[in-house]
Amino acid sequence: MSGTDADTASDEESRIVVYAVPFVGVLLIAVGIPSAILGGYVVVQDTIGLCNDPDVTVTPLEDEEADTPRETVERLPYDRLSPAEQAAVREAIDGPTDDATVQGDLENRATLREGVIVDVDGRSYYVTIASLNSCLEAEPLLFPIGVVAILLGVVGVLTPPIYRRMAGFEERMEQRPPRE
Fold first, then answer.
1. From residue 177, how far is each of 3, 172, 174 by CA, in Å?
2. pLDDT, tens digit, for every residue of 150-166?
3. Could you tell me whether strands 123-131 and 99-101 are parallel, antiparallel, or unpaired per DSSP bridges?
């Protein structure tokens, strides 16, 4: 192999190390960050109570609103609500705010999502689900995969400075006179 072929091969290797490897490293970091965040959130969301208990909003209706027939809003008897739903409706009616958390079975999920009129103690209320707080479904393995991708990306980004130092060290070693 002649000197020009070696220089061409060295230039090609240098370009790959200086441009391609850091680019791949940045891509790995860009993929790793959201993966690590999503995977970490999936692991802790249920533990710290960020999901599974929906909130209902209960709004009292005026007498004329409750008596007006509504084709789009269904009426649901209070007795057909599950015990957890009944407790949440009572809490929302009696509490300072118009909402409460359903802690238990949500048997009328589809109906409550659309909104219904419920009669409680002779008074009509519009009841609807304010937020479902459903758990995010993803593989918990995303967290370690994301962390590994970030670490590999950092190594890829740091490759050119390390390569330059090693090339400079090798060049100095070649120029150094041999020891006798």
1. 22, 10, 8
2. 999 999 999 888 877 88
3. unpaired
Q: Kindly give the residue spans of alpha helices, DSSP state H, lying in the chain.
A: 3-15, 21-44, 63-67, 83-94, 109-114, 142-175
In this prediction the pTM is 0.58
Give the number of other CB atoms < 10 A from CB of residue 21. 17
Are the beta carbons of 99 and 65 closer than 8 angstroms?
Answer: no
Whether the CB-CB separation of 89 and 123 falls below 8 Å is answered with no
- Strand, coil or helix: what is 124? strand
**Is the model's pLDDT at 63 over the cut of 80?**
no
- Tell how strand 55-60 and strand 74-75 pair up: unpaired
Q: At what angle do helices 21-44 and 142-175 cross, to 10 degrees?
A: 150
